[in-house]
Amino acid sequence: MNSDAVPRAGDVTALLLAWQDGDAAALDALIPIVHGELRRLARWYMRGERPGQTLQPTALVNEAYLRLVGAQRVHWQNRAHFLAVSARLMRRVLVDVARSRDSLKRAGGAHKVPFDERLVAASEWSVNLRALDDALSLLAEKDERKSQVVELRFFGGLSVEETAQALHTSPRTVMRDWRLARAWLSRELTKGPAL
Predict the structure, then answer these.
(1) Which CATH number is 109-195's, of 3.40.50.2000, 1.10.10.10, 1.10.630.10, 3.40.50.970?
(2) Among candidates 113, 116, 183, 189, which has minimal Cα distance to 146?
(3) pTM of the predicted model, to two decimals?
């Protein structure tokens, strides 16, 4: 199988469950598929990074892979669940890099950051990942599922149907949560610092 091809959901699910049950051969078969999935996500993430970004897709894949292998307590459900966990890990890696970079560049201060659905499909977007991460954390305190929908769609690149599967809900609910979360995030990211 080409490492860039998207594997069938059943293949990934069966291998994840077998690996979870201790089948070392399943892990050997899963690694090339996992690597392909992570490369796809990393390319999706990195196409939106600012020019001059020092983190490359390969490094993002390697870091996420190390974190995935270390996540031994995950009870894998299916491919969508794998993508959701991978998206969360890649978000954490990118946010950690952004926080580190930002702490070196400035001593503080907030700036307005627009959030727009078009960013999901755009080849170049300029969202401040640190501000978005902070806003998503605040949204998670208010409504965990809406935060997860944004994380899966925006960071994970999942479709509405894949997001619904990962969250065990309907596509209609995902679309409603997506619209409401986008509106909330847009307000949160564009308001200035409190006076």
Answers:
(1) 1.10.10.10
(2) 183
(3) 0.62
